[in-house]
Amino acid sequence: MRKVYVVGVGMTKIDRHYDKGFAELVHEAFVKAYEDSRGAEPEAVVVGNMLSSSLYQQDSLTALVADAMGLRGRGGFKVEAACGSGGYAFVAGYSLVASGLYDVIAVVGVEKMSDYPTARVTSALAQAADAEHEVIYGASFPGLNALAMRLYMKIYRASREDLALWPVRMHEYAYYNPYAQLRNRITVEDVLKSTTIADPIKLMDSAPVGDGAAVVILASEDMAKKFNDTPIQIAGVGLGSDALDLSSRDDLLKPLSIVKASEKAYRMAKVESKDIDVAEIHDAFTITALLCIEGLRFAEWGTSWKMIKEGRFTKDDKPALNLSGGLKARGHPVGATGVYQVAEIAMQLRGDFPGVKASSPSIGLALNTGGVATLTSVVILKR
Amino acid sequence: MRKVYVVGVGMTKIDRHYDKGFAELVHEAFVKAYEDSRGAEPEAVVVGNMLSSSLYQQDSLTALVADAMGLRGRGGFKVEAACGSGGYAFVAGYSLVASGLYDVIAVVGVEKMSDYPTARVTSALAQAADAEHEVIYGASFPGLNALAMRLYMKIYRASREDLALWPVRMHEYAYYNPYAQLRNRITVEDVLKSTTIADPIKLMDSAPVGDGAAVVILASEDMAKKFNDTPIQIAGVGLGSDALDLSSRDDLLKPLSIVKASEKAYRMAKVESKDIDVAEIHDAFTITALLCIEGLRFAEWGTSWKMIKEGRFTKDDKPALNLSGGLKARGHPVGATGVYQVAEIAMQLRGDFPGVKASSPSIGLALNTGGVATLTSVVILKR
């Protein structure tokens, strides 16, 4: 298999960009990635996006994106796996280069969410769940995650206070990340007294609504050094799925998609969970963080909340998790998030992430998932 | 680059399947492909689909599709490029195997369109065009294609009668294809007296609304012979794009996306247009067929209508075009169409297509496009 490298990354701050459309966001992120790669010109584009079809009535988004990058004529396609679209787009883009089809491609994650009323956005986000067996009966996306959180707290005897520590930490990290959406520090008390979204999920357990674009430029081995003095190798990728509806799953707290995707990525990269120095995981809600940590084998099932309480997974630990501030506080422009994560890990490995840094990491991981851990991708990067 | 082969194909008849959902259609097509490949079990799934997000409020479709195939846990993603989704999904799936990431994968095209009123479907199809610069001003998708048809007729002095010959031929072929949606023979007069959809486009210039699923199983070279005595090699693939809005294009009648995609595919397959024995092209409307024929260099610009009139591109010609009946009469379950095309070409090359057959073809081509030739993929297969 051809080796593939990340040779350029760029992103916009995540925010409610009322004054910017898809094209403006993509342009801004691409110009940064282009400069970061000393002018690498992508031959094709893969776009990660969830909501353009349902909210903006815009399919064919790739043509708009390619034009915004000055790449009219180049081919490409959009990948959709709900909130996991960005990570899957990255894997699709990786394989376009690994196969030898292209030498240089761009993976673009872009999402606009702010322009619509919250109720409309919430209903579009529920498209990640099973329309015919869940949503039609009134289930919201936070509601389905609340089922998992309640079960987790009951089975593993974790308290609501215990589970408030994660978002507090995420806001602390985001405070230092110039691209993050929520840069205010919060306390456990702030989490507990915030509005209940779907009991036991509080507002401050939940990723915010925001807009943003991130671009990662990939190149084959023979081109990589030309574009970047510190190209970052893609050492492993893995994909996994689970039943779309929660009621069909074997175990709501041991997500099959995360187990399958991480097993494949570890095997391909020839590493184990204990080798990972730094990772970005998918904490759309606090419960999602716990399921990711355990599914990745950073903790035994049911123990991640205790390890967080003991101060594990912080910036000097191995692995250091979500130094960006995570989906919770860096933000979660849904279909773009997976591309942000890969860009952040690449910067951590290069040592130029502009926020909280891990200490000299050499192996990093990004986990992005769509639905309630329904469609998961895991990417492992090496310096 | 690893060689990749088509080792199994399956499809449902295209029809208004009011009694079948996504899962039932996929299951039916996959069982056929599975048997055709003597039990090849895909490690991952790529889905081509346009409308599940906008019409059915269902994202994460891949999880539902994997479950319907008995492949829960396997990863995968959905590719969207409007009506070109299936062809792009095929290219994405091809690269997953060519790269060495997987040895066996399934590309699934599936679309449901019948359950909604025509006005709702027409509006969902318009998402292939530019929401912000075209659709908001009242443009429909047939309306945008009508602009191209009118311009073509004016510049190249083709009459409405001349352009009625294509759909007549498509219905003739579909009559013999058991999977086709419209198996009635029609005359030039039938076309001319059919309802005007968007002048000069008549109802009988237009692909029908229908549901269907097609599955193509791909395998690496070392596995291919195990699964099929006549594996069909993927010799070339190419992608191309054009401006999303027609007003930004250099030339509405020389679609950049088709030119770029076909150039790349020919180069990769080391063939020229004159080497193609049999092809399936994207005739969502009669005008689209002409643009495909010319963009692929099967005819000089502006001359395809004359060649059709002279009886070219029929079953004994080289290339023989759309022996399935094409989008016009085989049907056009939009995001699935590109997968139908590849399956049909593979069967033509194997000699077991159950409708009108080309005479001993060895090189075949499939062209699928989304929007008004906005996002095009070209796939070249060799026996």
- The total beta strand count of chain A reads 12
CATH superfamily of chain A: Thiolase/Chalcone synthase
Please mark out the parts of chain A with pLDDT under 50 across 5 or more consecutive residues, or reply none. none
Q: What is the second-level CATH architecture of chain A? A: 3-Layer(aba) Sandwich
Distance between the termini of chain A: 18 Å
Specify Rg of chain A, calculated over alpha carbons.
19 Å
Overall CATH class of chain A? Alpha Beta
Largest contact between chains: A-B, 72 and 71 residues
The structural class of chain A is alpha/beta
- What's the helix-strand series of chain A? EHEHHEHEHHHHEEEHEHEHHEHHEE
Helicity of chain A, in percent? Answer: 25-40%
Quaternary state of the chains: homodimer
- pLDDT average of chain A, as an integer? 97
Total number of helical segments of chain A? 14
Number of domain units of chain A:
1
The rough form of chain A would be described as globular
CATH topology of chain A: Peroxisomal Thiolase, Chain A, domain 1
Biggest β-sheet description of chain A: 10 strands, mixed
Strand order of the largest sheet of chain A: 3-2-4-7-1-8-12-11-9-10
β-strand percent of chain A reads 15-25%
Fold and architecture overview:
The structure is a homodimer of 383-residue chains. By secondary structure, chain A is α/β, with parallel strands linked by helices. The first copy, chain A, has a single domain, classed as Thiolase/Chalcone synthase (Peroxisomal Thiolase, Chain A, domain 1). Chain A has 14 helices and twelve strands. Chain A has helices at 22-36, 52-55, 61-68, 85-98, 118-125, 141-156, 165-174, 188-193, 221-227, 256-269, 286-295, 304-309, 326-329, 337-350; strands spanning 4-11, 44-48, 75-80, 104-111, 196-198, 201-202, 212-220, 232-241, 278-280, 320-321, 363-370, 375-382. In chain A, the strands form two sheets. A ten-stranded mixed sheet of chain A has the order 3-2-4-7-1-8-12-11-9-10, sandwiched between helices. A two-stranded antiparallel sheet of chain A has the order 5-6. In chain A, strand 11 (363-370) and strand 12 (375-382) form a beta hairpin. In chain A, helix 1 packs across helix 3 (61-68). Chain A starts with a strand and ends with a strand.
